From TrEMBL, chains A, B:
Lineage: superkingdom: Bacteria
Taxonomic lineage of the native organism: Bacteria, Bacillati, Actinomycetota, Actinomycetes, Kitasatosporales
Gene Ontology MF annotations: DNA-binding transcription factor activity
Protein name as annotated: Regulatory protein ArsR
Domain HTH arsR-type: residue ranges: 11-105
Amino acid sequence: MTTNASRVLAHPSRDEIRVEGVLHALADPIRLRIVLQLAAAADEQACSHFDLPVSKSTTTHHFRVLRENGVITQFYRGTAKLSCVRTEDLDALFPGLLDSVLRGADLQARRLGGADASSVALSGTAAGRVEQP
Amino acid sequence: MTTNASRVLAHPSRDEIRVEGVLHALADPIRLRIVLQLAAAADEQACSHFDLPVSKSTTTHHFRVLRENGVITQFYRGTAKLSCVRTEDLDALFPGLLDSVLRGADLQARRLGGADASSVALSGTAAGRVEQP
DNA sequence: TCCATTGTACGAGAGTCGTCGTAGTTTTAT
DNA sequence: ATAAAACTACGACGACTCTCGTACAATGGA
């Protein structure tokens, strides 16, 4: 089986998403980094594709915070757990919020770290590719 | 004297403001409410003009968090301490972020509470007047 | 001068958060 | 059947957050 019914993840419905929750979820450097990379990658990515400076359990924790606050969707495919940003829901509820946060984080990364960036910026392949024409 | 040198408050410079810090400051319902009211009021307001469901010391705490994260400026005038949003700095650093957060909070308040709103919405005079043409 | 107003400092308590390691589950591949 | 890969659950720890009350400081007016 590709998607097992016993492994369904709980997500808040669109109506249950709160702006405080979204802001809280995005207020952590590691989570912001995750969302930045997720948004840059267009399609879904597995948790294991992220090179984060924390342990595996902590990574799980951060992904759960993002999911429970309505920032990302997650589903299983095989042993992997794929994630993507809930762009449509967030844009409908809080127009422009996600974009300005991502853009602000990107501007800050450029401003602070230059090329390789620092705390919030991406480390891997898709580094810093947000709204860059 | 109107402004006493012994009562100067420390503010982060524009360069020291971090997007994570701003998001964290705005992620609390009470602080979001403060900023919403402050933004609606155009000019500065004293802390005592806010009718918050917490004690005086807690109010002091929340205003300090907002100031230390670069969201508001504060200065003394007589016994009062006036605050206003650092709109210019925030817009320069993170274009559109403040506006979309305030607008999102306002939309949420309408959506959830109807007229009088609930957790985040304003209680007093300037209730819900954000970007409403 | 004395007092009312406004806000601060400090300490404390309850709760949440970010982090970890270890042990376990689910799936896929051999 | 066995092993490897990917992720989770649980308990723990320290740090931070939100809250409060009490005691204190600065200002402005009677």
